[in-house]
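lol ok so funny story. i was supposed to be doing the assay writeup but got distracted and ended up predicting the structure for this chain instead. priorities right. anyway since i did it might as well share w the group, maybe its usefull for someone
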Amino acid sequence: MLACDFFETFTLTGARMYVLAVIEHASRRIRVLGATAHPTASWVVQAAKNLVMDLEDAGRVARFLIRDRDGKYSAPFDTVLADAGIQVVLSGVRIPRVG
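and the output, tada:
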């Protein structure tokens, strides 16, 4: 099982960056898929494609990916994962701290 989310950080020059990270629950391995100042739906789709390739190269199998309902996760993002056999599970509405 995987889970993904964005987190925000700042560079030494003060520029705001958004980092897309995925955690593999079984191994607790974190994969940073990329960082950008302006995350767009197309950027996130490319990150999903890269994730699928990385998992295949590592011989890893994932059945589920948990994500929130952020608009940057478009239908093509879900399609890339579905084509790889990964079912997308949406988190609940307005659940900032699930834990």
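Residues 68 and 91 are 5 Å apart (CA to CA). The mean pLDDT is 92.
back to the writeup now i swear
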